[in-house]
């Protein structure tokens, strides 16, 4: 069904562009080109948008804004870099504050070169983006059908960006619950995560080529295994994935006789898989005013 | 009949030991038992299908006259001395005048006027007594918990709780007296006792500010009392009676000729001062300085209702007359102005006060119109308003007790910080203006009454009610918005308070389902007894409203069914979010926090300007009213 | 009307109204585009938009915010049924207000500055148009002696002849209700420079689709009320509704958005002058 083809809504953002491409984007809305006949609406709101149209070469100040706007767009979404500056940074690439194109910050799906990009190219870019939207949507739908083909296995350092992105999505929920956006998992950088791969074992759950769950663990001392950062994408909750991940990570440490983990006191949903596997709460300590940390532990049978 | 006298005497009997015994345990037991008994008693009176009852005490008329006069003079003397002691000479003067009128009436007409019916109780009085008994009972129970915390927080105020509870029950007794009295002097006595209770309770905390406010209330209410006494004198002079039912019969029969009209106008004036219509609204605003149970009981649910009760009683006399139209206009202007002013208030108690004044204006409007439809609407308004407003005042009081502020802006996120309380506030607010709740039904009835009699007055109702929409919904919205998750903390609120709050919430909602029954059993018979005709909301509409109520009631269920497959993101802040829905990157790289504050539009709906305008308009109308009557 | 008739009408209203409303929304966009010398989207564009929205992810700021929208939708459908099955017009207006309040509460719940401003402005708009709507109902009562839509529709008098002021005032109210310039201060298709999407800023996906469909229902109810003014001649009613709709679109394209103060003042002054004036005349001429 060509739902997106008929109604692509656009979010237009100027990431330090000279405004040449922006004027051309707006020109597309004028009677001469009239993109509204294709159903395109320029909404100024990421939450209503399907296509993220970015112009300009992206400077240091824009990076956070771009990421925030992208995050606030509902799936399926595509990013279109309009103009040669957005594509590669063009002549400004080497400047001290310029990142050099949108793809240094966001995953770009469509590149529309030109300086300034002509409305015809922009419209062509939108139409191609729309086709991509259809593909992404079909993929999203099929993911739900592919649950039976979920695989669980070791993750490598190459998976870090995906796991980090998943971590940020899942801990957004936690942050809302505790009203604390300084939680360590939200603040972790890519470098930090890559370093973690050297000391910890990462397990990932994959559906249709996308990582939808992860857990990591490491040995503390000779006999105790520490399990942490159990994350499952909200769409896949209540399907027993958490439990399987915990079991998998435990099996990676055959020498451990005791497993420990901790989480926030309000994270009932994270506690469930552990409790189902026999973990019990051993102690609770205050971390901040509104958040306590609860420690769980389990002694392995036959140990 | 003795049952009614008992209902008047019982709270009085309870009041005295409450003053004497200082033990908390004894107070608790006495208050709770008394509250239950009073509520049960007033409800019990509703049950047997009794029609108009009258009583004659086997007391010689003279004996009664002297007792009555003695009590009236005692009250007047007390007020006189209060005025002298605090150098409020106007108060002393008014008390003196009133005493003078009472004495004059007595001297001139002693022995020549016979009081046939001293106490009477028809359906209307019984319903009012029921409201006062139940709402008053719950507020008394609430006060037990509240006053304890009040004095813990305010150690600078002298703890005079025995006096407080004494006054509370004395007041309840006087209220029953007002509803059951048919003899106007007796009514006036009880009326002035409520004024006195109000004065003492407003000044409860003993500060200079509250004393000033108390005297303002006293002065304005005394003005009304003076008019009342004048009405009695005039009625005795021209018609040889001092009984309310005779006055009403005269007016209804005579079609509003002078004899009945002047006392009616004077009594209406008294009613309007007591219910804080413009230009007398300032005393009600000032009374907000009193502890919350006082505001709830006296100044929204019951005492001020005595004022509109009197006006509604006079409806048959005022109907179709020019003074009646004046009264209606005063009510209408008060409703409109009060509703507009409430928009500009951010102090929750002031919003409630202005809303009370406005709704009382609406009831006065009904009384002034005086048709059977208007009367029905007015009584319905009293019923719903008393319960819902009491709930709202108690909730705001509880909030203030916990957080030490009354500002609506501080209630942001209350749905998370104090979920139970915030839901009760929302029930109260919804009950005040939203379909299919009670006040909406009543306003609907008012609209229908007006289109049949005086469509121009519809203007006031229509503009006023659109104003009420604004300030109620923005308050509700403030409760719901959550920018900072605070842990839920509803500790420190006594069980007795929760009992009262919950009961009133249930009552507010339940009344919507039960009002057809109440209307059929109580309101319609009364209206029919006066006009021979009756009106009500049609069966079809009742069914539709029940459906609506059912659907709205489903809403709380959603709190337990939380969407799982949703992704939580921050609010849209132009992309400048600093990992938060509140913090964003401002100019120069500074991190700023966003704030959301309601519109108060003080430059448009400022209190000073509008109350001045309303006051002038209503004062002019009062002059016209008396001018025409004379 | 027999219960069976009522049920059939109700079902017909529930099913047909969104299609009618959506088509009207499509005509709106097409006409606006033509007035701007553009081609404009296809007539069925609103349906395409809604279809796409159902396929989008649902993202929220507060988890309970979408419930209010569902109730907004349910009550809007309820209002439509109430009106088209010929119920009490005052009750219809109250139900409509109830529905709109759920939308406003949803915007408050979303706890975001743009939706907050949208909510406050929406309340101001409601305060501005409500007197006029109620006065229109009162005017209809004065002429037909009934508040029941069925009775008003069956009245042999052409209401607009005795209620011209109320009619004009009601058309102005349409500008408020349909979020058209100059009174589109709370949520507008064009205002995104000023308040982003106002009330609907924080709603996405399915929820936004429901808001859109609820607006279609509302459009049919409001145009139905316009038709009531001409109910004595049904063909004229249809023509009048169409003309009024066209007029509203024309005004939308010609006028710029006003500030909220002027919106509030306009609503009230028009209600006071045209509404009260008309009622005065009707009352005294009786």
What labels describe this entry?
heterotrimer; B: 630 residues; mainly alpha; 2 domains; two-stranded antiparallel sheet; two-stranded antiparallel ribbon; 25 helices; 5 strands; 2% strand; C: 286 residues; 1% strand
Helices, strands, pairings?
The complex is a heterotrimer of chains A (303), B (630) and C (286).
Chain A: H1 3-6, E1 9-14, H2 20-27, E2 41-42, E3 51-55, H3 60-71, E4 78-82, H4 84-88, E5 110-112, H5 119-145, E6 151-154, H6 160-178, H7 184-187, H8 190-199, E7 201-207, E8 210-220, E9 224-232, H9 241-251, E10 258-264, H10 268-276, E11 280-288, E12 291-299
Parallel strand pairs in A: 1-2, 1-3, 3-4, 4-5, 9-10
Antiparallel strand pairs in A: 6-7, 7-8, 8-9, 10-12, 11-12
Chain B: H1 2-20, H2 24-46, E1 53-54, H3 61-85, H4 89-109, E2 120-121, H5 123-153, H6 161-180, H7 184-202, H8 208-239, H9 244-254, H10 258-274, H11 282-286, H12 292-301, H13 303-313, H14 315-318, H15 322-343, H16 348-369, H17 372-403, H18 414-417, H19 419-433, H20 438-453, H21 458-480, H22 495-531, H23 539-553, E3 567-568, E4 583-585, E5 591-593, H24 602-605, H25 607-629
Antiparallel strand pairs in B: 1-2, 4-5
Helix pairs in contact in B: 1-2, 1-6, 2-5, 3-4, 3-7, 4-8, 5-6, 5-12, 5-17, 5-22, 6-7, 7-8, 8-10, 9-10, 10-13, 10-25, 12-17, 13-16, 13-17, 15-16, 15-21, 15-25, 16-17, 16-21, 17-19, 17-20, 17-22, 19-21, 19-22, 20-21
Chain C: H1 3-35, H2 45-54, E1 59-60, H3 65-84, H4 89-109, H5 113-144, H6 149-154, H7 159-162, H8 164-177, H9 192-195, H10 205-228, H11 234-254, H12 260-285
Helix pairs in contact in C: 1-3, 1-10, 1-11, 2-10, 3-4, 3-10, 4-5, 5-8, 5-12, 8-10, 8-11, 8-12, 10-11
What does the model show?
- The complex is a heterotrimer of chains A (303), B (630) and C (286).
- Chain A is α/β, with parallel strands linked by helices.
- In chain A, 36% of the residues lie in helices and 25% in strands.
- Chain A has ten helices and twelve strands.
- Chain A is elongated.
- With 630 residues, chain B is mostly helical.
- In chain B, helix 1 packs antiparallel against helix 2 (24-46), helix 5 (123-153) packs antiparallel against helix 12 and helix 10 (258-274) packs antiparallel against helix 13.
- Chain B is built from 25 helices and five strands.
- In chain B, 61% of the residues are buried.
- Chain C has helices spanning 3-35, 45-54, 65-84, 89-109, 113-144, 149-154, 159-162, 164-177, 192-195, 205-228, 234-254, 260-285, and one strand at residues 59-60.
- At the B-C interface, helix 20, helix 21, helix 23 and strand 3 of B face strand 1, helix 3, helix 4, helix 5 and helix 12 of C.
- Strand 3 (567-568) of chain B pairs parallel with strand 1 of chain C.
């Amino acid at each position: 069904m060509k739902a997106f083809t008929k109604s692509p809504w656009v979010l237009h953002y100027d990431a330090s562009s000279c405004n040449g491409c922006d004027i051309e984007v707006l020109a597309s809305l004028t009677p001469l080109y009239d993109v509204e006949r294709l159903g395109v609406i320029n909404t100024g709101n990421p939450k209503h948008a399907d296509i993220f149209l970015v112009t300009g070469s992206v400077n240091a100040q824009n990076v956070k804004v771009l990421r925030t706007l992208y995050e606030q767009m509902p799936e399926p979404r595509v990013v279109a870099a309009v103009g040669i500056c957005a594509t590669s940074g063009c002549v400004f690439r080497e400047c001290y504050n310029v990142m050099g194109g949108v793809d240094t910050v966001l995953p770009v799906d469509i590149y529309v070169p030109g300086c300034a990009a002509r409305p015809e190219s922009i419209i062509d870019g939108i139409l191609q983006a729309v086709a991509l939207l259809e593909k992404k949507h079909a993929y999203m739908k099929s993911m739900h059908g592919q649950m039976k083909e979920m695989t669980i296995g070791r993750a490598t350092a190459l998976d870090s960006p995906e796991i980090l992105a998943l971590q940020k999505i899942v801990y957004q929920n936690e942050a809302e619950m505790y009203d604390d956006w300084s939680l360590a998992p939200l603040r972790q950088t890519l470098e930090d995560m890559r370093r973690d791969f050297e000391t910890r074992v990462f397990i990932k759950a994959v559906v249709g080529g996308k990582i939808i769950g992860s857990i990591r663990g490491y040995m503390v001392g000779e006999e105790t295994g520490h399990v942490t950062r159990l994350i499952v994408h909200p769409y896949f909750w209540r399907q027993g994935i958490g439990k399987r991940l915990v079991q998998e990570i435990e099996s990676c440490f055959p020498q451990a006789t005791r497993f420990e983990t901790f989480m926030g006191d309000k994270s009932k949903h994270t506690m469930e898989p552990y409790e189902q596997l026999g973990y019990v709460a051993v102690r609770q300590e205050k971390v901040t005013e509104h958040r306590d940390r609860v420690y769980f532990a389990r002694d392995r049978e036959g140990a | 009949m003795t049952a009614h006298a008992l209902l008047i005497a019982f709270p009085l009997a309870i009041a005295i030991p409450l003053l004497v015994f200082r033990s908390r345990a004894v107070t608790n037991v006495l208050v709770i038992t008394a509250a239950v008994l009073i509520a049960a008693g007033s409800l019990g009176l509703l049950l047997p299908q009794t029609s108009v009852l009258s009583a004659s005490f086997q007391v010689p008329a003279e004996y009664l006259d002297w007792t009555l006069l003695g009590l009236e003079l005692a009250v007047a003397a007390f007020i006189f001395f209060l005025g002298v002691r605090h150098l409020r000479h106007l108060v002393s003067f008014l008390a003196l005048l009133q005493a003078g009128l009472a004495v004059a009436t007595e001297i001139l007409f002693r022995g020549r006027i016979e009081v046939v019916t001293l106490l009477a109780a028809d359906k209307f009085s019984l319903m009012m007594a029921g409201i006062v008994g139940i709402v008053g009972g719950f507020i008394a129970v609430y006060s037990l918990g509240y006053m304890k915390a009040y004095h813990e927080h305010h150690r600078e105020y002298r703890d005079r709780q025995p006096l407080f509870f004494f006054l509370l029950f004395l007041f309840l007794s006087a209220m029953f007296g007002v509803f059951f009295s048919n003899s106007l002097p007796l009514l006036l006595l009880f009326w002035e006792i409520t004024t006195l209770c109000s004065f003492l309770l407003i000044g409860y905390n003993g500060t200079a500010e509250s004393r000033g406010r108390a005297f303002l209330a006293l002065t304005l209410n005394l003005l009304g009392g003076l008019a009342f006494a004048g009405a009695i004198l005039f009625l005795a002079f021209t018609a040889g009676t001092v009984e309310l039912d005779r006055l009403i019969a005269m007016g209804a029969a005579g079609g509003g000729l002078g004899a009945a009209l002047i006392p009616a106008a004077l009594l209406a004036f008294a009613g309007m001062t007591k219910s804080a219509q413009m230009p007398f609204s300032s005393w009600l605003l000032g009374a907000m300085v009193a502890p919350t149970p006082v505001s709830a009981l006296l100044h929204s649910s019951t005492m001020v209702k005595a004022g509109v009760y009197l006006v509604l009683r006079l409806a048959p006399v005022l109907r179709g007359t020019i003074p009646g139209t004046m009264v209606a206009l005063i009510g209408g202007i008060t409703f409109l102005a009060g509703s507009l002013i409430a928009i500009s208030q951010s102090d929750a108690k002031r919003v409630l006060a202005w809303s009370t004044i406005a709704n009382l204006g609406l009831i006065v409007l009904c009384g002034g119109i005086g048709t059977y439809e208007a009367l029905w609407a007015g009584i319905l308004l009293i019923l719903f308003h008393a319960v819902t407003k009491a709930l709202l005042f108690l909730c705001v009081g509880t909030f203030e007790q916990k957080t030490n502020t009354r500002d609506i802006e501080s209630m942001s996120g209350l749905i998370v910080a104090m979920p139970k309380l915030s839901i009760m506030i929302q029930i109260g607010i919804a009950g005040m203006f939203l379909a299919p709740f009670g006040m909406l039904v009543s306003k609907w009835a008012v609209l229908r009454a007006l289109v049949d009699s005086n469509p121009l007055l519809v203007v006031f109702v229509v503009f006023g009610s659109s104003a009420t929409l604004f300030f109620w919904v923005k308050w509700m919205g403030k409760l719901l918005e959550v920018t900072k998750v605070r842990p839920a903390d509803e500790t420190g609120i006594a069980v007795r308070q929760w009992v009262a709050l919950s009961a009133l919430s249930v009552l507010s909602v339940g009344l919507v389902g039960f009002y057809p029954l109440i209307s059929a059993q109580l309101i319609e018979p009364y209206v029919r007894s006066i006009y021979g005709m009756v009106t009500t909301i049609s069966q079809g509409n009742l069914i539709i409203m029940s459906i609506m109520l059912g659907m709205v009631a489903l809403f709380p269920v959603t709190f337990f069914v939380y969407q799982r497959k949703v992704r939580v993101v921050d609010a849209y802040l132009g992309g400048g979010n600093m990992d938060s829905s509140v913090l964003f990157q401002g100019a120069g790289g500074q991190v700023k926090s966003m704030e959301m504050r309601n519109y108060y539009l003080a430059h448009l709906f400022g209190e000073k300007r509008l109350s001045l305008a309303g006051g002038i308009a209503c004062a002019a109308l009062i002059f016209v009213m008396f001018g025409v009557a004379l | 009307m027999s219960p069976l008739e009522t049920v059939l009408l109700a079902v017909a209203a529930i099913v047909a109204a969104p299609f009618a409303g959506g088509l009207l929304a499509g005509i709106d966009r097409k006409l606006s585009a033509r007035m701007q010398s553009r081609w404009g989207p296809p007539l069925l564009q609103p349906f395409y938009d809604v279809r796409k929205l159902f396929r989008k992810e649902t993202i929220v700021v507060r988890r309970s915010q979408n419930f209010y929208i569902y109730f907004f939708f349910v009550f809007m459908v309820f209002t439509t049924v109430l009106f088209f099955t010929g119920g009490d017009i005052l009750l219809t207006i109250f139900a409509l207000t109830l529905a709109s309040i759920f939308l406003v509460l949803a915007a408050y719940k979303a706890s975001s500055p743009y939706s907050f401003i949208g909510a406050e402005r929406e309340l101001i708009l409601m305060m501005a148009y409500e007197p006029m709507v109620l006065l229109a109902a009162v005017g209809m009562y004065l002429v037909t002696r009934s508040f029941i839509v069925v009775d008003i529709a069956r009245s042999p008098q052409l209401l607009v002849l005795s209620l011209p002021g109320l009619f004009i005032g009601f058309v102005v109210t349409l500008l408020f209700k349909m979020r058209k310039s100059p009174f589109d201060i709370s949520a507008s298709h064009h205002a995104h420079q000023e308040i982003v999407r106002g009330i609907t800023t924080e709603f996405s996906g399915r929820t936004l689709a429901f808001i859109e469909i609820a607006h279609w229902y509302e459009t049919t109810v409001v145009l139905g009320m316009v038709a009531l003014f001409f109910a004595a001649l049904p063909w004229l009613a249809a023509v009048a509704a169409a003309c009024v709709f066209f007029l509203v679109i024309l005004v939308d394209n010609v006028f710029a958005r006003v500030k909220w103060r002027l919106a509030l003042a306009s609503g009230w002054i028009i209600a006071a002058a045209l509404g009260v004036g008309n009622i005065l005349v009707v009352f005294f001429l009786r």
